[in-house]
Amino acid sequence: MHTMTEDERMPLWDAQGHELHPASAPEGPRATPARYESALDALHEVFGYDAFRGEQQAIIEHIVAGGNALVLMPTGGGKSLCYQIPALVRPGTGIVISPLIALMQDQVDALQELGVRAAFLNSSQTPGQAREVERAFLRGELDLLYVAPERLLTPRCLELLDGGRIALFAIDEAHCVSQWGHDFRPEYQSLSLLAERWPAIPRVALTATATAATRSDILACLSLQDAPQFIASFDRPNLCYRIIEKHEVRRQLLDFIRAEHAGECGIVYALSRSRVEQTAEFLSSHGITALPYHAGLDQATRAANQARFLREDGIVMVATIAFGMGVNKPDVRFVAHIDLPKSIEGYYQETGRAGRDGLPADAWLAYGLQDVVQQRRMIDDSAGDSLHQRRQMRQLDAMLALCETVTCRRRDLLAYFGQTIEPCGNCDTCLEPPAAWDGTVAVQKLLSAVYRLWRERGQRFGGGHLIDILRGQLTERVKQHDHQSLSVFGVGENLSVDAWRGILRQALALGLLTVDLEGYGTLALTEASRAVLKGERTLMLRPVAVKRAKSGRQRTTTAAQLDALPPEALARFEHLRAWRGRIAREHSVPAYVIFHDATLREIALQNPPSVEALAGVSGVGARKLETYGPAVIECIGEVGD
Ligand code: ADP
Ligand code: ZN
Fold first, then answer.
1. Superfamily, domain 239-431
2. 76 close to ligand 1 (CB < 6 Angstrom)
3. Ligand 2 centre distance from Cα of residue 345 (Å)
4. Which of 225, 230, 283, 375 could cysteine-pair with 290, CB 3.0–4.6 Å?
5. Dihedral of the CA atoms 325, 326, 332, 338 (nearest 10)?
């Protein structure tokens, strides 16, 4: 039950004390007049972009004409324009429903920087501030109004909306209606009232989460069954996917950041709070500005860390999955996972937070034998019915298959979402194809060691001891159990411990072995083992990674390097970035609200001689040109040619 707050019981009145109820508003409700003739005008004038991307144009035209729509696009695909431009072109105010109260201020700041009349209503405001916004809406002075769902559903807010003119409803993060997803918000389900109360106002639902179950929940809840669905490609060509073998993961992470992303902004995901804390401390002690974020921190610390991440350049956020939805910072240059994600959906969403600006970015994951064992055990130990466990197991298996694939990672990822592409040329397996080898015999040796121990001795052991047996090591334990007399003793002498660990990991990932349920980490055969033991199945395995010597900083060519700026342009870019940092601090807004990195890069490359020439750069709209044009030209002038 919703209980009204003091503020909600207040009448809607204007500064003169007139009630602003529709019937009693001094001059009746006014519609915000349409500000742009066409969608293309708004795109050029306000946003400074040359052309629509993908399906943006079709979506926008459909909504401008009064239609409803479901928009499915990956993170960074350009969903916001799909409702922002119709709100500018249609008379009235676009109402944006978003669960992300913490980000509304930044979203509104960014729009105001573009000259758009935007505001929000949420619990972070004082009643006075909220009334100011309400008045602006009723007077028809707003293009866009952001509202949290729980706020929208209050009688006061519903009445307010009735008193003004609404251009459209945009339901952002629409997957929150679904109980299947991990972002379920009960208030979202009450949004079904939009269709009942305002059937003639266009509704556009937007999300980056693509599963079929979620989609049908959205359609049902928002009465969009008859609306067209615009489903963009989920490919993010600018992201370079890389999955490496885990040895000393913090050290590997540090090397990766230092070598490829020094001074840049990134997110590191870990599974537990303690790993988050330890990793943030480790990075900090090595000179990287890293902050922790997890549900165990108090609200104030979380908010402060998130604000720093959004505002400052070059911060690395180390977080659990509690950090993420709606983090729309466009210049996150890498997302690193130091633990195996639980599903491809989660992995895809988390990595999608990198490179929203379309510039090259890295999705880096380190994974090892222990991850497989640990996650399988976590699922076994988890409460819940066996159907749920089976579903989790399937999701994990798909994730493992992605880790172990010897073909294009992006192709496997997109195949998971039902899309087909050619090998991409921008993932580790494409850039440096792994020398896949026929590991059938090696896996047979491993499986038969498990089989013999069980059949002949009734024993089960963990991976370490099995590897000792295969490699013919006369350890204490081997002697104690007389395992040197097994026929498999020493049959794997030719391979190193690391090689065997790699084979074991892949056998687990492929479901040829399971970790037993009693929790000792001992290994058992599965149904699938049989075909391998009988020689009916060939297994192509990933090569065994050789631990890299610490000194040899053998870097792979990343997409970022291929896209590097020439030296003069780089100098201009750095100078512009420093200037942007100062302006952002003065205005206390995130740097990207002033200009995106992509725009600064273009300016640095084109080196425009005048404010007029600057107008041609993508991302420089009319308002920005007016506000910052002269300063930008002066700034690049200081660098010289
Ligand atoms: P999403 O909400 O889908 O994650 P955004 O709406 O934040 O994505 O857009 C991602 C980035 O792409 C933003 O920096 C945005 O300004 C930019 N963008 C969107 N549409 C265009 C376009 N037509 N041309 C150039 N840049 C665009
Ligand atoms: Zn590829």
1. P-loop containing nucleotide triphosphate hydrolases (3.40.50.300)
2. yes
3. 18
4. 283
5. -10
Report the pLDDT value the prediction gives residue 548, as an integer from 0 to 100. Answer: 44
Whole-angstrom Cα distance, residue 292 to residue 290? 7
Distance from residue 47's CA to the centre of ligand 1 (Å): 10
Band of pLDDT at residue 99, cut at 50, 70 and 90: confident
Q: Which of 55, 348, 356, 597 to mutate to test the pocket of ligand 1 (most atoms within 8 A of CB)?
A: 356
Q: Which residue in this structure is represented by tokens 């391979």?
A: 495
Quote the CA–CA distance of 612 and 465 in Å, as a whole number: 72
More confident residue, 462 or 60: 60
Residue written as tokens 């498999």?
488
In CATH, the number for domain 437-541 is: 1.10.10.10
Does residue 53 have its Cβ closer than 6 Å to ligand 1?
yes
Report the percent of the chain where pLDDT is more than 70: 90
pTM of the model: 0.76
Helix H, strand E, coil C: the string for 240-252 is: EEEEEECCCHHHH
What's the CA-to-centroid distance between 132 and ligand 2, angstroms?
52
Q: Is the CB of 374 under 6 A from ligand 1?
A: no
Please choose from 75, 80, 96 the residue to mutate so as to test ligand 1's pocket, defined by most ligand atoms within 8 A of CB.
Answer: 80
